[in-house]
Design goal:
Layout lengths: L7 H10 E11 L10 E12 L3 E5 L4 E7 L2 E3 L7 E5 L4 E11 L6 E7 L4 E7 L20 E9 L3 E4 L3 E6 L3 E6 L12 E4 L2 E9 L2 E9 L9 H19 L8 E6 L6 E2 L4 E5 L10 H17 L7 E2 L6 H18 L5 H17 L14 H6 L4 H17 L1 H15 L3 E2 L1 H12 L4 H7 L7 E7 L2 E7 L4 E11 L2 E12 L3 E4 L6 E6 L6 E2 L3 H10 L6 H16 L5 H11 L6 H17 L6 H18 L5 H14 L6 H8 L11 H13 L5 H10 L3 H12 L4 H13 L5 H12 L4 H4 L3 H14 L2 H10 L8 H9 L5 H22 L4
Helix pairs in contact: 2-3, 3-4, 4-7, 5-7, 5-12, 5-14, 7-8, 8-9, 12-14, 13-14, 14-16, 15-16, 16-18, 17-18, 18-19, 18-20, 19-20, 20-22, 21-22, 22-25, 24-25
Length: 827
């Protein structure tokens, strides 16, 4: 048995027998700047009650030095993941002295040496089960405790944790910072960060409550930090959630830190929220990017209540935090900040993630069956986040806004600092809505798959036909083309339950079956509506209606109902006029994906050339300095990695011949240079010169990816070998090697590794951390012209880890869809 992969059954037994009172964690990080030092001393003291005489603590590190139980030093029984404890009393104090390992994968305590100024930065990332890489703990969400962190670090560093310091002792070149105890929290949302971060301070006040605010970033990025906007959104969010939940923010301070080489968008550690540095632009950023950051800030803030204050008992109910936070991020953005079109972006982009995930053979209910930690790790997906949020939007339409929020208030009041399951929330919601929520839960939370809605019109009668029937509260909008604009003329609201619902519907140029996007379903366009948007999509005035049209077109293309060439023609015709930045960015990503995965090999060069030309023309026709101009510049850089026809224009931009108003920041320069390298129009000397201009952490990752992208069989072979065997690669550097290996869609350079992939993945899964193994399994999956190799592996590896098989099955499904669409034709 892999003892690192904790199961639901055994953790439930442990929490039933053990009650934790407090945990004290002492970390010595004074040696972190020494690059040769791989580990750090960590001492954990746990006070707990037990009704059994034996249990275990979770720890993954370099070494366990001492185990002391109730004052008595015990023989160390450690298997690399678990420390066995025996001879327990009713009340226990256990001290574990150990050596943890600095992380290069973003799991546990990650260490980053900044090449820009040679400074060292540390931060922790734990969800779902990596706190055990830093401290000995009970690594499960339902064993909450008050944590006290004590950190030794170099003098002059910022040292941060969930709470504010209660005592700081300064020594010769070092400091010891002891933090105030936390309120009861789970191990995975504790946090520590340390390093010479730049601090920007603020404050939020409400009546007698005062919350200190902090924003932190590496020194070398400080001049790019727009802290004023981040603090503004933070204050707006605290105002909104305090009113909405009627439970004061409970965690004292509210620090937000932007960190390098981060695996996630952000993480909701109470009092110390961590974000990826990708939210800090090194040059120009679009309004859509700032809106996405605001949404993320509010998503994590919602977790202070949904997830931190009240936490799911086990990962089956992950939706109790992630679905709610995803919903609240969009809702709070729309009503509390200037980013009022958050639901437009959600409809056009976020739900696409959910639809894709929900059509895979590995789809699962929102309330999922999660037997172990590996399964939990993979369920941070489009169903748990975006589908769950969409379903909650449907729930609000079903019970009403007031009942939904009142149910939440009662839920927090009844379960504060505790752990819950689905039933605990449904009880509160049923009480305030006067509706039995069991049928709704069964239809939406406990089943999988996505319904499809289509319109049938026959001799003046209309009907909505539903596959995979569920109850929907929705609106149907009728739109007409008048004076060159498409405007809604009529709207009807109704409930749809069965397979067929007849209704009176006026004749219209465009009919939207899920107008205002109230429900979660793929709503198809009828043929007349399709012809209307094909000619006039950019004339649709309402951005949410356009989002629904773009979504319907993309779903139909993925399903083969619309020929991909027709879809790409619509994008070329109407995307240049798309005024919503979120919709534009999503459409550009989808078009690029369709080109590489859905277009027949023989047809692809023609379609790719048309797309490259379209992005170049749109770049020049966009208003100078506009968000659209920047979005099209990025799309042009991406297209140029697959088509070398405009290499001179790309080189011209790098040499300073830039369209008026376009800000070519370091990241965009790397995109353009990598495109030239991929197509053989730039070489290693060009990469070296660019790295000299931008010798930063981001620059080094980009340079690694560019060098691996050179169209040379030996170079791609070296990237392949490095990805699988070089365990010194950080998470970002591994991503760069994978991206370089796959650059330009050059199957002729990489297809010889297809068989080797299937020989390697099982060993990688068993020997690498799940974060890095997943990147290898997904990122290097062969885009071959046949399913034979993957089918043979699945047949011959039925005993492989279920989480590994899930990833391979999902990649097989993507490949199968790609092969099917390349060989077929839709409308």
């Amino acid at each position: 048995m892999d003892t690192a992969n904790l199961s639901r059954h055994e953790t439930a037994a442990r929490s039933a027998a053990v009650t934790v009172r407090s945990i004290r964690v002492e970390l010595d990080l004074t040696g972190a700047p020494e690059r040769a030092r791989s580990g750090f001393p960590t001492t954990t003291t746990l006070d707990f009650d037990a009704t059994v005489d034996a249990t275990w603590l979770d720890f993954i590190g370099e070494e366990v030095l001492a185990v002391v139980v109730n004052g008595e030093e015990r023989e160390i029984d450690y298997d690399g993941a678990r420390i066995a404890l025996t001879g327990l009393a009713a009340m226990n104090t256990v001290r574990i002295e150990a050596v943890g390992a600095y992380s290069r994968s973003g799991e546990g305590l990650h260490r980053f040496h900044d090449p820009a100024d040679d400074e060292t930065y540390l931060y922790t990332q734990y969800e779902p089960a990596d706190a055990r890489r830093v401290m000995a703990c009970f690594e499960q969400p339902d064993m909450k405790a008050a944590y006290t962190f004590v950190v030794d670090a170099p003098a002059g560093w910022e040292v941060l944790s969930n709470q504010a310091p209660s005592r700081i002792d300064n020594g010769l070149g070092v400091q010891r910072v002891e933090f105030a105890p936390t309120l009861p929290i789970s191990s995975y949302i504790t946090a520590v960060a340390a390093g010479p971060y730049t601090r920007v301070e603020g404050e939020w006040r409400r009546d007698e409550q005062r919350v200190p605010l902090g924003v932190f970033v590496r020194r070398s990025l400080a001049h790019h930090l727009d802290a004023d906007e981040i603090l503004e959104v933070t204050r707006q969010g605290l105002d909104f959630f305090t009113d909405a939940f009627a439970f004061p923010y409970p965690w004292g301070k509210y620090d937000q830190i932007f960190v390098p080489e981060y695996n996630l968008g952000a993480m909701e550690n109470p009092g110390l929220v961590t974000f990826t540095e990708a939210h800090i632009s090194r040059g120009a950023s679009t309004e859509a990017q700032r809106a996405a950051r605001a949404n993320t800030i509010l998503h994590e803030m919602a977790h202070m209540w949904f997830g931190d204050l009240v936490t799911m008992r086990w990962w089956d109910d992950l939706w109790l935090k992630e679905s709610f936070a995803d919903y609240m991020g969009a809702h709070a953005s729309a009503v509390a900040t200037r980013f009022h079109d958050a639901w437009v972006t959600f409809a056009g982009k976020r739900k696409s993630w959910a639809y894709t995930q929900d059509q895979l053979p590995t789809t699962h209910p929102i309330v999922a069956d999660i037997p172990d930690l590996e399964a939990a790790k993979l369920n941070f997906d489009g169903i748990t986040y975006a589908k769950g949020a969409a379903v909650l939007k449907q729930l609000v339409a079903f019970v009403g806004d007031d009942a939904f929020f009142e149910g939440g208030r009662r839920y927090f009041a009844a379960n504060a600092f505790g752990n819950t399951t689905l039933d605990d929330f449904l009880v509160e919601l049923s009480a305030v809505s006067d509706r039995d929520m069991r049928d709704w839960s069964a239809a939406w939370l406990q089943t999988s798959g996505v319904s499809t809605l289509r319109l049938e019109i026959d001799e003046g009668r209309a009907a909505v036909v539903q596959s995979d029937p569920r109850p929907h509260r929705l609106r149907i909008g009728s739109y007409d083309l008048v004076d060159g604009r498409i405007r809604r003329r009529d709207q009807v609201e109704l409930d749809i339950v069965g397979e067929r619902t007849e209704l009176d519907l006026p004749d219209a140029d465009l009919v939207l079956l899920n107008d205002d996007d109230l429900t979660y379903a793929k709503a198809l366009l009828d043929e007349r509506s399709l012809r209307t948007v094909e000619a006039s999509l950019s004339a649709v005035e309402d951005p949410l209606a356009r989002a629904l049209v773009w979504s319907a077109l993309w779903n139909a293309t993925r399903d083969g109902d619309i020929d991909v060439a027709r879809y790409l023609a619509i994008v070329r015709a109407h995307a240049p006029a798309e005024g919503n930045g979120g919709l534009l960015s999503a459409t550009l990503v989808n078009a690029a994906y369709a080109l590489q995965h859905f277009v027949d090999d023989a047809r692809r060069p023609v379609e790719q050339r048309a797309w490259t030309d379209a992005t170049w023309q749109a770049l020049h026709s966009a208003d100078a300095g506009s968000d659209a101009q920047l979005s099209w510049a990025r799309a042009f850089a991406g297209a140029s990695a697959f088509d070398d026809s405009r290499g001179e224009e790309v080189r011209g931009i790098l040499d300073g011949r830039v369209p008026e108003g376009l800000v070519v920041d370091p990241d965009l320069r790397w995109q353009f240079l990598t495109a030239l390298v991929t197509t053989g129009q730039a070489d290693a000397d060009d990469v070296a010169a660019e790295l000299e201009r931008d010798d930063t952490g981001s620059g080094r990752s980009a340079a690694r990816g560019a060098l691996a992208a050179r169209p040379d069989p030996a170079v791609r072979a070296a990237a392949w070998t490095a990805a699988w065997t070089d365990e010194s690669l950080t998470n970002d550097h591994l991503d760069a090697e994978i991206a370089g290996f796959r650059a330009g869609g050059r199957r002729d350079l990489v297809e010889r590794f297809d068989e080797d992939y299937f020989l390697r993945i099982r060993g990688a899964w068993e020997s690498r951390s799940i974060e890095l193994a997943r990147r290898l399994v997904v990122g290097l999956f062969p885009e071959s012209g046949s399913l034979d190799l993957v089918d043979a592996w699945l047949e011959g590896n039925r005993d492989a880890a279920p989480a590994l098989r899930r990833l391979v099955i999902e990649q097989r499904d993507h490949l199968s869809r790609s092969l099917r669409l390349r060989g077929g034709a839709g409308r």
